[in-house]
Request: fold
Amino acid sequence: MSKHLNRLCAVTLLVLFSSFISRSFAQQKEVVIIGVSNESSFSRKAETIEIPWKSVKKKLKNADPHMVLVKDLRTDTEIPSQVLYNGTTEPQALIFQVDITPGAQINFGIQKGKPSEYKLKTYGRQVPERFDDFAWENDMVAFRMYGAALDGRKDNAKGIDYWSKRTNELVVNKWYKGKDYHNDKSEGGDVYHVGFTLGAGNSAPLIDTALIFPANYSSYKILDQGPVRISFQLMYKPWTVNGQEVSQVKTISLDAGSNLNKIVDQYSFKSKELPLAIGVTKHKGNGTATIDSLNRFVSYWDPADGMDNGMIGTAVIVPSYKTENYSDKYGHVFIGVKAARNKPVVYYQGGGWDKSGYFADNAAWVSYIRDYTQRLDNKLKAKVK
Reply:
């Protein structure tokens, strides 16, 4: 019995000592453990995890936002991360992306240290050499919106333009420099027509049967730009809608690996509410429209511009705002909402191309959008331990 007790005491002391050493080591390295769990029934790929900076700073005393990195603790491997500022001078959050299977739980560590130079997977800028376009992209897709310098021209446009890519490289600067981006030279191109429509997923006031567009954006602000996310704001000068003055600030963010932008539209007006259409253009009407009110999205699949440029899918998701109707009319497939005064409207929009290699047909595109709504409804859990 004595020997058994001695052995038990020795084992207990060893466990306590090991635990003490582990805690001491963690304290020395000052690692913030983030437990990420997937409680949904489907796999998640390139899902962005956002940790408030105050949580990081609480655990990592005197943390320098330029000197933190994230590791997958299963392999002790550094993964790309980005500190968000949301247009301020102070850090607001730290983001990184994960791939995780259903029911899995993975631990990540945030620690002090000089991060590696990660490959940029998002980018955006104003393009003054092309009438103040604002163009942005990630490793999957590219988009643009039109600036004030284009107002009054015959080639003016109002909606969101979608650029089809079949490369994971960033192309915006290259394509603008080449001035021939309407022709696919193995990387993709701008083969989507916008004109005076909502394009690939804009919003606009809808009065009776007419969309009341503002002048093109007059100023912009880049909020964040890094390997994981590009986010920026476009500001619009006031315009008259049904007898009242309306102004707008559009905040757009795009994460690596995603075909969809998150858009926050803040309309300012004096009335109680403002009717909006959020949707995509139908072009010649020879495509396939999908309206899914259960999953709160509409999409359209139709031929790209030009000869033999494949098929393009566009879509908008309005996940949580009170919707009024889902419609296929006025040359668009759209979701009607009534914006409340001082309340932003949040939605998601984007595009896919059959020549990208990711969407063989309309069924594949609609499946992607439907899955995306499930990701929004079943967010990954991230717990600071």
Summary: The helical segments are 2-29, 53-59, 172-178, 362-377. Residues 122-377 form a domain with the Beta-galactosidase; Chain A, domain 5 fold (CATH 2.70.98). The chain has a mean pLDDT of 93. The chain has four helices and 26 strands.
